[in-house]
Amino acid sequence: MNALRTLIISPNWIGDAVMAQPLLQLLRAAHPERPIDVLAPPGVSSVWKQVAEVDEVLETPFRHGALQLRQRWKFARLLRKRGYADAYVLPNTIKYALIPWLAGIRKRVGYKGESRYGMINVMHHDELPPRPMVPFYAALARPPVTVQGPGLRAALPRPRLMATPAQIAAVQARHAIDPARPLVAMAPGAEFGGAKRWPARHFAGLAQAVLARDPSTQIALLGSPKDQEACAEVAAALQAGANAGAAVFNLAGATSLPEAIALIARAAAVVANDSGLLHIASALNRPVLALYGPTDPDHAPPFSDLAASISLRLDCAPCKQRECPLGHQDCMVKLTPELAWQKLQPMLAQG
């Protein structure tokens, strides 16, 4: 390959990958002639395939958490042949910084992380308290500075994904979703832990309000196989009583990530915990209702034109714990469906 390329080493989480996308917008603007490759784990690679600035996605062959030095050396030799001018290492671990160093990429940009002196030769340092995720990653496009001012943050592009009409049509056909009827997507899951999950009964209560407003609305419950139990609880509550005939699709574990992206792109609104699907919806510029409990709503907010974040901002929050250390999960339990409906209803009215 003759043209010098840029390598992005992706974060390991879907939401973080989405929030790193503005970095690519800045890099493409600075070097429009330079192809951008993204090295990503299999669970995240599908996100990058929906990013306009990405020329090629390379999947990592490494096991999670393992050093696998011999395998990284072999992979680095393959990367050396591709001709990279620079590499942006977004994970903070040494093992990911090893790859561009072993590949002989001259400019290696990233945060200090695990004291990665030498492996990272354009080293950034985070602020205290930490910056929100979008400016945290986007700052790597510029020379390291001590303080990122508010003017710089305000000028940043928003995360942006795309889904084609063909992708949307295919997933609707596969799951028998009527393209002529409105669709509201709900994502009751969260990979980080149970503390981030709004109770399934609350999702059901909010969905009932959606159906009372417009009984023709279709409800799509999205998530991974780990979310099947929560989604099944929501579906069971909706398919009983007055909503027995409602079009409810429990798709947890039944869609690939590209299919979930296409369904979200089609949705009239998306309701989600602080999760990867929330940030996908934001990057697709869908109306988003974001539910925050143990995490900080200011650290990773949605960026849609129509977006609302709800947090009770209790004294014990944000604790940032996987499970409620006090055992009551009040930050999510006391966030009622009625409060959520007050935020969601105006979005649906504008759709």
Automatic annotation (TrEMBL):
Signal sequence, renumbered to the chain: none
GO biological process, one term: lipopolysaccharide core region biosynthetic process
CDD domains reported in the protein's UniProt record: GT9_LPS_heptosyltransferase
Chemical reaction(s) catalysed: an L-alpha-D-Hep-(1->5)-[alpha-Kdo-(2->4)]-alpha-Kdo-(2->6)-lipid A + ADP-L-glycero-beta-D-manno-heptose = an L-alpha-D-Hep-(1->3)-L-alpha-D-Hep-(1->5)-[alpha-Kdo-(2->4)]-alpha-Kdo-(2->6)-lipid A + ADP + H(+)
Gene Ontology cellular-component annotations: cytosol
Family matches, as InterPro entries: Glyco_trans_9, LPS_LOS_Heptosyltrfase, RfaF
Keywords: Glycosyltransferase, Transferase
EC number: 2.4.99.24
Keyword Glycosyltransferase attributed: yes
Alphabetical list of Pfam families matching this protein: Glyco_transf_9 (PF01075)
Entry's Gene Ontology molecular function annotations: ADP-heptose-lipopolysaccharide heptosyltransferase activity
Keyword Transferase belongs to the record: yes
Transmembrane segments: none
Similarity annotation: Belongs to the glycosyltransferase 9 family.
Protein's UniProt name: lipopolysaccharide heptosyltransferase II
Lineage: Bacteria, Pseudomonadati, Pseudomonadota, Betaproteobacteria, Burkholderiales
Underlying gene: waaF
